[in-house]
């Protein structure tokens, strides 16, 4: 990235008795839709609040649009935010809420009213300007919050779990709305969420955080395909993670022992020695299933046996949960509906799992 | 009714239960009525006899008359005392509300060492016996040369009323999600503008309520006013001085006056404390 619009350099935040963000580096390009993800307490919201100037970094630098933001208070930053709680002003009308940021910029009453009106129209709230916030539905309030944040035409929009408080149906609609807004406005969106589906659907790039550190940054499909460590693999959740110990290294391959057997996994250029703790990943949609009595699979493929625990319907595919003796967690295997039917899978059934070892890869523990 | 015998038995049962509930409810209302009667009768007696033509409250009634009310209005000392009470009450209401808001906002907005001590300090005065409070204030005020002024009474009443004002306003602030104020900063309002445009309007019902409540606290307060007022009498002090001289039928008329003012203030305070609840605060 030649000229990042937002640049975090060794950004660090300590609260009393809690090290929330541990010196992270991140560049965000102008117009990028970036999703920051992680479990609660990973530091993602604190990072967003530091960008907005609501929390002052303990150390490190924050640059926005080529300006060092140290010492610049929140109200001078022009980094509007949409909150999970929406934080609308309860005693003002819808129009007054949207006019609020314009009036702070000393725009006249008439001009403000006109601009706010245009944005309400744009967000499908035409004619609702005189209502109080309490008279609106959840989805309408969400749109008021978006209009209020965007009415000053900022070059960045911060979103802190904006959709988590909505029901599924509304969440899907707002997701579409956000994608449309980003497409039309072409401004930078920094989106904090713990919901993978939102990040996958919306983001150009995602940042996975844990324990105050960035674990991985990349396009959603890359993070999904190639998590860089055991934490990310676990967090993404659609991958199967097997923990074990290195037995030997041979020709770019790791031979490892795990509670469910010995496996050989490619390990390009990793500095592992015998005895090291190591995990390997095999994606849920890379595992083949067959009846237990099925013959040998393709030569050299890894093989396991297990019992089907249950099936979970996820759109056009199903996730099959399989218990493998000795494994701490069940295996997940993702299959198309017709494959499930042709195998006649049902809970309690014994199956054989196999995969091409080339599709598995070795991971270090979390950063 | 098409019900067979068993159903009728059930009906009987229900009727009995309903009778019992009705009886119990009647007893509850009766008890409440007695309680209110017990509290209100003395006040009612005062009001009634203030319109009695007799010099001394006695039965039978001596006929309707406004002469004691007229006498009150013509009494220059009572008028002075009433004026003093108004001045002190208004000043106390304004200052207590402002200080109460400041204290409540400090407690709401920041976390600091000694915070609970700070809150306790503001909340404590009403818990101290007024006699002790009055004596302490008298000693202090005479040392700094403020003794015997209307302002001194006002200052002491502010100490007392600020506690109530803070409690009221803090309660309201608790309903304001911290993110609402931050959202105002985020949208370009400096912290002081945010307080002015967001926090104060949000607290408006509590501010008005605390204004009237503080005025009522001051208007009814006798002990401190008596201690520190010197020659400046507030209405309650005047009443006591009247009583000490001789039994004066004007007392009932003044009592009626004070009652009307106090009840009005408390009702006004209550009217504004009843915050519109249909409106969820933005903390949801």
Write up what this structure looks like.
The complex is a heterodimer of chains A (367) and B (284). With 367 residues, chain A is α+β, with helices and mostly antiparallel strands. Chain A has 2 domains: 6-225, 3-Layer(aba) Sandwich (Rossmann fold); 238-364, RNA polymerase II/Efflux pump adaptor protein, barrel-sandwich hybrid domain (OB fold (Dihydrolipoamide Acetyltransferase, E2P), Beta Barrel). Chain A contains 9 helices and 20 strands. Chain A has helices spanning 44-52, 94-104, 109-122, 138-150, 168-185, 196-202, 220-225, 230-236, 337-343; strands at 6-15, 18-28, 33-37, 59-64, 67-68, 81-82, 156-160, 188-193, 205-210, 213-218, 239-250, 253-258, 261-266, 277-283, 288-291, 302-314, 317-323, 331-336, 350-355, 361-363. In chain A, strand 11 and strand 12 (253-258) form a beta hairpin. In chain A, helix 2 (94-104) runs parallel beside helix 4 and helix 3 crosses helix 4 (138-150). Chain A is elongated, with a radius of gyration of 25 Å. Chain B is mostly helical and 284 residues long. Chain B has 2 domains: 8-50; 68-272, MetI-like fold. In chain B, 76% of the residues lie in helices and 0% in strands. In chain B, helix 3 (76-109) packs antiparallel against helix 8 (191-220). The A-B interface holds A 52-54, 73-76, 78-81, 83, 85-91, 100-101, 104-105, 132-134, 148-149, 152, 165 and B 177, 179-180, 182-191, 193-194, 197-198, 201-202, 204, 278-284.
């Amino acid at each position: 990235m030649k000229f990042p619009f937002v640049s975090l350099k060794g950004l660090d935040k300590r609260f009393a008795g809690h090290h929330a963000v541990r010196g992270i580096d991140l560049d965000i390009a102008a117009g990028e839709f970036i999703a920051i993800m992680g479990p609660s307490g990973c530091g993602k919201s604190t990072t967003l609040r530091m960008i907005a100037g609501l929390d002052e970094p303990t150390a490190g630098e924050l640059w926005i649009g080529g300006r060092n933001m140290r010492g610049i208070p929140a109200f001078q930053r022009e980094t509007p935010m949409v909150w999970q709680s929406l934080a609308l002003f309860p005693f003002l009308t819808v129009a007054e809420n949207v006019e609020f940021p314009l009036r702070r910029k000393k725009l006249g009453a008439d001009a403000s009213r006109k601009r706010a009106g245009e944005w309400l129209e744009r967000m499908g709230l035409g004619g609702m300007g005189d209502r109080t916030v309490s008279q609106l539905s959840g989805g309408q309030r969400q749109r008021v919050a978006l209009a209020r944040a965007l009415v000053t035409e900022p070059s960045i929009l911060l979103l802190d779990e904006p959709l988590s408080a909505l029901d599924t149906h509304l969440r899907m609609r707002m997701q579409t709305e956000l994608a449309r807004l980003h497409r039309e406005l072409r401004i930078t969106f920094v989106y904090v969420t713990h919901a993978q589906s939102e990040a996958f659907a919306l983001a150009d790039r995602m940042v996975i955080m844990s324990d105050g550190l960035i674990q991985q940054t990349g396009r959603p499909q890359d993070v999904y395909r190639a998590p860089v460590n055991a934490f990310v693999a676990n967090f993404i959740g659609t991958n199967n993670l097997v923990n074990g110990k290195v037995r030997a290294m041979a020709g770019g391959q790791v031979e490892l022992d795990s509670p469910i057997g010995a496996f050989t996994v490619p390990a390009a250029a990793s500095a592992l020695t015998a005895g090291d703790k190591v995990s390997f990943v095999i994606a849920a949609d890379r595992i083949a299933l067959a009846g237990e009595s099925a013959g040998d699979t393709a030569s050299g493929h890894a093989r396991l046996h297990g019992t089907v625990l249950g099936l979970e319907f996820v759109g056009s595919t199903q996730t099959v949960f399989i218990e493998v003796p000795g494994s701490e967690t069940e295996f997940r295997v993702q299959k198309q509906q017709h494959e499930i039917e042709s195998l006649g899978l049902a809970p309690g059934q014994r199956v054989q799992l196999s995969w091409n070892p080339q599709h598995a890869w070795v991971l270090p523990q979390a950063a | 009714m098409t019900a067979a015998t068993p159903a009728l038995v059930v009906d009987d049962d229900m009727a009995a239960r309903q009778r019992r509930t009705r009886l119990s409810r009647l007893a509850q209302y009766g008890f409440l009525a007695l309680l209110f009667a017990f509290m209100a009768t003395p006040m009612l007696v005062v009001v009634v006899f203030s319109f009695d033509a007799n010099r001394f409250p006695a039965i039978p009634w001596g006929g309707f008359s406004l002469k004691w009310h007229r006498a009150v209005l013509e009494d220059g000392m009572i008028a002075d005392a009433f004026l003093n009470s108004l001045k002190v009450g208004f000043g106390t209401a304004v200052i207590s509300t402002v200080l109460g808001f400041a204290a409540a906002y400090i407690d709401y907005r920041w976390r600091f060492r000694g915070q609970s001590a700070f809150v306790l300090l503001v909340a404590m005065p009403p818990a101290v016996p007024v006699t002790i409070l009055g004596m302490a204030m008298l000693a202090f005020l005479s040392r700094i040369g403020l003794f015997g002024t209307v302002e001194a009474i006002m200052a002491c009443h502010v100490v007392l009323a600020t506690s109530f004002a803070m409690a009221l306003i803090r309660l309201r602030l608790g309903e304001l999600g911290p993110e609402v104020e931050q959202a105002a900063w985020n949208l370009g309002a400096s912290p002081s503008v945010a307080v002015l445009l967001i926090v104060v309007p949000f607290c408006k019902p509590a501010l008005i309520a605390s204004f009237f409540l503080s005025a009522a606290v001051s208007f009814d307060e006798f002990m401190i006013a008596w201690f520190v007022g010197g020659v400046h009498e507030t209405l309650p002090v005047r009443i006591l001085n009247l009583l000490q001289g001789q039994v004066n039928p004007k007392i009932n008329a003044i009592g009626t006056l004070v009652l009307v003012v106090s009840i009005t203030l408390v009702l006004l305070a209550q009217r504004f404390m009843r915050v519109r609840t249909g409106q969820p605060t933005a903390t949801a």
